[in-house]
Amino acid sequence: MVQRLLIVEDDCLMAEAAADYFTAKGWEADTEEDGIQALEILKRKSFHLILLDVMIPGMDGFALCGEIRRISDVPIIFITARVMEEDKLNGYALGADDYVTKPFSLPVLYAKARALTGRVQGSRKRLELGDLSVDTGSHKVWNQGRLLPLPPKEYEMLLFFMENPGRIFSREQLLIRFWGYDFDGNERVVDNHIKKLRKAIVSCGCSIETVRKSGYRLEVE
């Protein structure tokens, strides 16, 4: 599975340099310079890691970190020129996982990112909800102990719903998340894949429910 990175940094050159470096390593990297806009992105798209500057417009990094922790436990690395101990303690208290001080080495930043995401993924290798069980290392899914041969797209969608139980996602959000902004097909492709998923996970203690005029959510019985 491709690692997804969000860089929240108002220094465009620095953000682009980091994005290019991670992209060259096989990651997908999004950049945003405004804290409020970054939070909106996080509400519709999931990431494996966030690189977060402290001094950004709209909402500063500390406030954004606190808001992120209300909706996600994604690893967060602060990238900042501020080196005061009280700032670091504040960041850790809000839920940050690590700090990198500007100027920094991109290879060192990448090494920290790999180590952090590796630990997180290792601790989450097995995900279980109801009678569903997912091994994120092998991409295998079981329903009541029976192996489900899910195609890649359905596997990714199921894992996404299991990582976000109870949250509502619109067709547009799911379309962008799994088919990208450039997809020129019909939104009904989302409905077709949801229909297939529902058949696969029947009687598992979980269900993908339609929320009228809003979208879909995974409910656990």
Structure, described:
Helices cover 43% and strands 23% of the residues. It is built from 8 helices and 11 strands. It has helices at 12-24, 35-44, 61-71, 85-94, 106-123, 152-163, 171-179, 188-200, and strands at 4-8, 28-32, 49-52, 76-80, 98-101, 126-129, 132-135, 140-143, 146-148, 206-211, 215-220. Strands 2-1-3-4-5 form a 5-stranded parallel sheet, sandwiched between helices. Strands 6-7-8-9 form a 4-stranded antiparallel sheet, covered by helices on one side. α2 (35-44) runs parallel beside α3. The longest helix is centred in the middle third of the chain and has 18 residues, at 106-123. The protein is elongated, with a radius of gyration of 19 Å.
Write the layout of secondary structure elements.
Elements: E1 4-8, H1 12-24, E2 28-32, H2 35-44, E3 49-52, H3 61-71, E4 76-80, H4 85-94, E5 98-101, H5 106-123, E6 126-129, E7 132-135, E8 140-143, E9 146-148, H6 152-163, H7 171-179, H8 188-200, E10 206-211, E11 215-220
Parallel strand pairs: 1-2, 1-3, 3-4, 4-5
Antiparallel strand pairs: 6-7, 7-8, 8-9, 10-11
**Major sheet:** 5 strands, parallel
Number of helices: 8
Rg for CA atoms? 19 Å
**Distance between the first and last residues' Cα:** 29 Å
> Count of DSSP E strands?
11
List keywords for this structure.
4-stranded antiparallel β-sheet; 8 helices; single chain; 5-stranded parallel β-sheet; 221 residues
